[in-house]
Amino acid sequence: MDALRRTLLKGAGATGAIAAAMAAGVLKPSQVLAAEYNRAAFEAKDVAGALKNIGAGGATDNTGIVIKAPDIAENGAVVPVDVSSNIPNTVSLAVLVDKNPSPLSSAFDFANGALPEMALRLKMGQTSLVEVVAKTADGKFYKAKKEVKVTVGGCGG
Amino acid sequence: MADPMKIRAQMKGDTAEIRVLMSHAMETGQRKDNAGATVPAHFIQAITVDVGGKRVIQGQTSTSVSRNPVFGFKVKGAKVGDKVVIHWEDNKGDKRTDEAVIAA
């Protein structure tokens, strides 16, 4: 748990009050999950804002990140995406949809043998780049992009 | 309380493949109902996965994840019979925990 706590999720939104409550043993880590939600990053309206709020503003392009997604998605409500990182010591992955109203879709931390790899299904309002950010154990950020064309949007439109 | 998750966990070599289907509306807060009123956002925002008593994955999600989210993960070094415990919480405080056992 300690290793996980230092990673991607702990963005600008985490407050000292929560840390103090944890230290005092008032809150168990599981109860803190929701309170620590990185609202600033997930509610950011553009990619730059989301990246900044997960600390990845200076992420550099890297081909070690593999994004498997359809070139053309017929249904933007359900776009299957597989992401993985071949960058050594990747501890976190975040997936963003550039043109969604709130681009950051998910951020996951991996530890205790979990491979830096995940499959998920995204909602895409329109044709957009899907961007993946990987964080390594030494705190460096890397990113990669892939365009997915959407013929029917998935954001209620 | 939401419907149970469907969890499938299976060993492939030395790596456990875990797939989970969560039953959730994942409302974006952008959609309007028939009367034209905006449907409030309602989405899973925190997920944890424990295997064999150890936290292997924790993550946060937003409305950009599809309705009834599916996630696939891989955990190296897990064993047949290890318990997989998956937990989510949404933005309205609803939560759910389900378990499965890794199959051969």
How would you sum up this structure, described in words?
The complex is a heterodimer of chains A (157) and B (104). Chain A is of the alpha+beta class and 157 residues long. Helix content of chain A is 19%, strand content 37%. In chain A, the strands form two sheets. In chain A, strands 1, 3, 5, 6, 8 and 9 form a six-stranded mixed beta sheet that branches. In chain A, strands 2-4-7 form a three-stranded antiparallel beta sheet, with no helix packed on it. The longest helix of chain A has 8 residues, at 16-23. The radius of gyration of chain A is 16 Å and the shape is globular. The relative contact order of chain A is 0.21. Chain B has a single domain, classed as Immunoglobulins (Immunoglobulin-like, Sandwich), CATH 2.60.40. Chain B is 0% helix and 50% strand. In chain B, a hairpin with a 2-residue loop joins strand 1 and strand 2. Chain B is elongated, with a radius of gyration of 15 Å. Chain B starts with 5 loop residues before the first strand and ends with a strand. Chains A and B meet through helix 3, strand 6 and strand 7 of A and strand 3, strand 4 and strand 5 of B. Strand 7 of chain A pairs antiparallel with strand 5 (70-76) of chain B.
Topology:
The complex is a heterodimer of chains A (157) and B (104).
Chain A: H1 2-5, H2 16-23, H3 29-35, H4 39-42, H5 47-53, E1 60-61, E2 65-68, E3 72-73, E4 79-85, E5 90-97, E6 104-110, E7 114-122, E8 128-136, E9 141-150
Parallel strand pairs in A: 1-9, 3-9
Antiparallel strand pairs in A: 2-4, 4-7, 5-6, 5-8, 8-9
Chain B: E1 6-12, E2 15-21, E3 44-51, E4 54-61, E5 70-76, E6 83-90, E7 95-101
Antiparallel strand pairs in B: 1-2, 2-5, 3-4, 3-6, 6-7
